[in-house]
Amino acid sequence: MQSLWSDAGAAAFAGDALALRVYSSRLLGSNEDLVMHGGGNTSVKAMTQDFFGNELEVLYVKGSGWDLKTIEKPGFPAIRLKETRMLANLETLSDTDMTKQLRSLMLDPTAPSPSVEAILHAILPATFIDHTHTDAVVTLSNNPQGEAILSKLYPDCMILPYVMPGFILSKQVNAAIRQNDPANYKGIILMHHGVFTYSDEAKTAYEDMIELVTRAEDYVAANGTISLPQAQHPVDLIDLARIRKAVSKARGSAQLAILDQTPDAQGYAALENVDHIATRGPITPDHVIRTKRVPAIISTSPVEGVPEIERYVADYQAYFAANGGPELKILDPAPRVGLWRNMGSIAFGSSAKECSIIADIARHTRWAVQVGESIGGWEALPEKDIFELEYWVLEQAKLGKNGGPGKPHQGKVALVTGANSGIGKATCEALAADGAAVIGLDINPEVIEQINGIDITGMVCDLTDTQSVAAAVDRVITLYGGLDIVVCNAGIFKSGERIEDHTEDTWNETMAVNLTATQRLMSATIPYLKLGIEPSLLVVGSRNYAAPGPGAAAYSVSKAGLTQLARVAALELAGEGIRVNVIHPDAVFDTALWTESALATSAARYAMSVEEYKTKNLLSKEISAVDVGRLLSTMASSVFAATTGAQIPIDGGSDRVI
């Protein structure tokens, strides 16, 4: 564990205690071996003025929803220090009342809620307080001889047994520091929880944390095995899609299934005793909110239905029945982590961000479990303690803030072709806005920059190359575990050649891109759509299918063929629950097909200005790519759950079609 402290960097915040608090908090947050994804908390005590200009001492403590890695000043709500300390002297204080009292002590009622450890931070008699959930120390505290090991390793720290966070923990620490002057200790080690360090100097508090964690790391290196098993096995992507569908069914909504098939993940999943060592509980109780108490253990070749997920649901329901009460409502029983025998670790979540957090915790957990086993074994807290934290009223309140109806495509996976610009790009953005994880395919390499974000990815693919299409679809399943929405949008438009003058190149290329490539994409994606959640296959046709124009034979024929292909697909796939629908846009001028010169030429043919030409429809409305993208996203949603085989125009009303 290396100190990242820079005297020169810290000097920029001289005289500003809160700015210095932000600086050292970010140092802690930058290392996942110390804290992960919102874990840990820090504070600083300082003088400020209230609304009336009165001087008072406050505690700036990390606020709910902030991450130490990226925290800024607004992430530290200020609460009155004297009154916060008084709360620790109460005999009892419910979690709800503690939250109310802490909020009542805030100088700014619009700031984020203070950490549930605010009282503990207040009673420690030091200016800067640092708290982490470091892997190395937690690994040792989960050892059957953990207390003895830590007492020997940390004679200069108070070692305290596990209790629930919040008021109970603050009472425990308050009693301990009344009996033992904290000035005589470098820190506090909380069994199964983490480490506190404290000092009047930010640098000392931070570097004491680094030094204490280094001791644990050195002990592990000297007494355990940190060289962990590795493996490499090919993955059956259809099986992955089956697993995803089973978990989505268990949770009652679409879930991404992001597979970690790195050698260390596959090595862990290949251990003969993984079902035993991986199902004892989380390495620290607060992980249960993200990962549930245990992962699902899934066989190498799951069959339809994935019985392991069904058993997991039954086991979770039994876990709730054994530990819950009538005042509690069971959470969804679906797993958040799956250990797929030999194949690796799967993170299940409603978004790529959620899956990323779960995957990181799973990665740190498998390290701690295996290393812990090598130094004498590891054991989690009893099931009852884990349950109490999972159903803790304060954690339930956090979940409630993120509750409510989700976006229509939350947790779904969408594939869009012709994504670099125009309708394709707008469709990618509409689907992503509605919650889907979106992959946009295009032959233009610029798609990688155009379609780029945490839940939206551009990928280069030549749709006329069968191998390229197969590789792209495999990549999609590898990324997210399945496929629910396919939008066939890619197409080219070449006009001006009458039938007797048609070149073979124009005809062949138009058919290859507009028609044959779509058939190939359908063939590659249908096996995964059959395992999708509310699966939908959407085809972007054209007004030309019904109202062709002279000089556009290849385009008009390809779009008519495309429409017929979709109609057959609707007939074939209805039994699988896959909806197939077509939209027919016209006069969508903000696409790559319409250059300024082409637009001017077409407008002149009708003796119109360009603006008049753009609204040459019954509604006198200009149609944009965004309009088409929104329609496609809506058609993929439950709004159109009872519709298949439909052909819907989006053209402002064309008298030639009507």
Quick take:
With 658 residues, this protein is α/β, with parallel strands linked by helices.
Write structural notes for this entry.
This protein has 658 residues and is of the alpha/beta class. It has four domains: 7-223, Class II aldolase/adducin N-terminal domain (L-fuculose-1-phosphate Aldolase, 3-Layer(aba) Sandwich), CATH 3.40.225; 237-401, Class II aldolase/adducin N-terminal domain (L-fuculose-1-phosphate Aldolase); 413-588 and 624-649, 3-Layer(aba) Sandwich (Rossmann fold), CATH 3.40.50; 589-622, no CATH class. It contains 25 helices and 19 strands. Helix 21 (504-529) links the parallel strand 16 (485-488) and strand 17 (536-540). Helix 18 (422-433) packs across helix 25.
Q: What topology, given as strand order, has the largest sheet?
A: 14-15-13-12-16-17-18-19
Strands, total number: 19
Round the Cα radius of gyration to an integer and report it: 30 Å
- Helix tally? 25
Mean pLDDT: 94
Pick out the low-confidence regions: none
Structural class: alpha/beta
CATH level-3 fold name of the largest domain: L-fuculose-1-phosphate Aldolase
Q: What oligomeric arrangement do these chains adopt?
A: single chain
Structural shape: elongated
Proportion of residues in helical segments: 40-55%
Portion in strands:
5-15%
Number of domains: 4
Please write the CATH class name of the largest domain.
Alpha Beta
Task: Give the biggest sheet.
Answer: 8 strands, mixed
Which superfamily, in CATH terms, is the homologous superfamily of the largest domain?
Answer: Class II aldolase/adducin N-terminal domain
Termini distance? 72 Å
